[in-house]
C-alpha cells in the first residue's frame, strides 16, 4: 500500500520561493492502477519524484507499506518520460535491463540474465538484448525502460508521462502493454499523464490535479471493464462521459462538480 | 568481381586518396623544390631520404627512439590516471572544485617547458625528470576535460541510477565514466600532442639519449641532413601515435559514434 500524506513541496530559490505542490493526499491500495492527470506544468513530475524518494517534500510524507520513504528504495521503480536519457547509450539493451540487478545480493549472474531476458520477452523484445538502445525506435526504447523496471520487481511502478514523446499508434500499443502487465502481474501502478483519454483508458481510478500550487481536485472511479481495448473501450459511452467530466474539471467549467455529485 | 564489390573498392580507394592526397602533394612539392638546393641548411629531400636509412638503424631505434617513446608513455599514463582521478573528484564535489580552482588556474597558466629547469633541481636530469615534465604538461587537458565531462552527467540518467540504487563505485563505472568518456578522450587526445612536444623539449635540455637529444646533437655537429631525418622521425612517430589513439578511441567510444550517427539519420530517439 502506498500512502501520500498531506504532501507539500516548496522550491526555495534565491530571494523567492515557489510553491509547486500545496497539499496532496491519497492512498493506493495494493495492486491498484491509478492515473494522475493534470494540466502541463502542474507539478506532476515533482509529485512523482517525491513519491520515489528522489526529492524531499517540504511537508507531509510518503509511506510504502507503512514505512516512510526518505530516499530511493528497492520497492519503487520509475519509468521516465525521457527514455533516450534514462537508458544508457553505452550499455547494450540487456545490460541496461540488468544494471539495477547487479547489486542485488543473492542474485547470481545466471539468474540476473534470466530475469532480464524474461522481462525483455514480456515487453515483446526478446531478440533485442544485444542491440544498443539508440538502434531501436522510440517506442521500443520505452519498452526496454519498462522491461528494466519489471526485472527490478518493484511493489510500486511509477510512470512519469512515459508515452508523451512517442507517436499515436505506438502510444496505443504501449498503453495496452501497461494494461496487460498490470492485469498479469498485479503490480501497483501510479501513472502520471497530461492526456485525459490516456488517464481514463488506463486507470481504475483517476485523480484530477489542479494547476500549481497543486491540490487534488477530484477522484473519479473508472467503471470500465477490466478487459479494455482501443476500439470498443474508447467508443464506450461511459468512457466519453468520464473524459468529459475530467476535462470539465481541469478546464474549471464546473467548479463545484464535487458538490453537485453528492 | 561483382558490381557492389567494385563500388566498395572504389569507395575505399576514394577514402584512401583523401587521406594520403595532401601529404603526397606536399612531399612532391618539397622533393622538386629542394632538388637543386645548394644551401647547407636546406639539403635536397632526396639527400635527407638517402641519409635516413643510414642514421636510423635498428641499433639507434633501440638506444634513442625506444627510450623517448617509453618516457612519453610513462608520463602520459601517469597524467591520464591522475587527470581522470582528480577530474572525477573535482567534477563530483562542488566544494572540492571551489577550493582547488584558484591553485589550478595558477598551475595551468605555467607553460610546462619553463618547469624543466625547476624539475631538474628536484628530479635530476635522468628519466624521472623527463617523465615528470611530460606528465605535468599532459595532466591539465585531461583534468579539465574530465571535470567538465563529469559535471555534465545527464540529470535523468543520474536520477535513474539513484532510483535503481546504483551507487558508489558502480555508479562511477557504469554512469559517470562512460558518460564523461567522450570528453575524457578529447582531453587525452590534446594531451598526446602536448606529450610529444614535451618529450622532445625535455630531451633537448640534459639528456644522453632520445630523439630530441639526437636532433640537437646532429645540429651541433653540423650534420644537417641527419638532423632533418630526426625531424622526419618525430613526424612519423606523431602520425603513428595518433593512428593508435584513433583505434583505441573507436573501440572505447563505439557507442558514442553510433549514437551520433543514429541522431543524424532520423533525429533518432523518436518513434
Automatic annotation (TrEMBL), chain A:
MF GO annotations: ATP binding
Coiled-coil annotated residue ranges, if any: none
One Pfam family recorded for the sequence: ABC_tran
InterPro entries: AAA+_ATPase, ABC_transporter-like_ATP-bd, ABC_transporter-like_CS, ABC_transporter_ATP-bind, P-loop_NTPase
Keywords tagged on the record: ATP-binding, Nucleotide-binding, Transport
CDD domains assigned to the protein according to its UniProt record, in alphabetical order: ABC_NrtD_SsuB_transporters (cd03293)
SUPFAM superfamilies noted in UniProt: P-loop containing nucleoside triphosphate hydrolases
Domain called ABC transporter: residue spans: 2-236
Official protein name in the record: ABC transporter ATP-binding protein
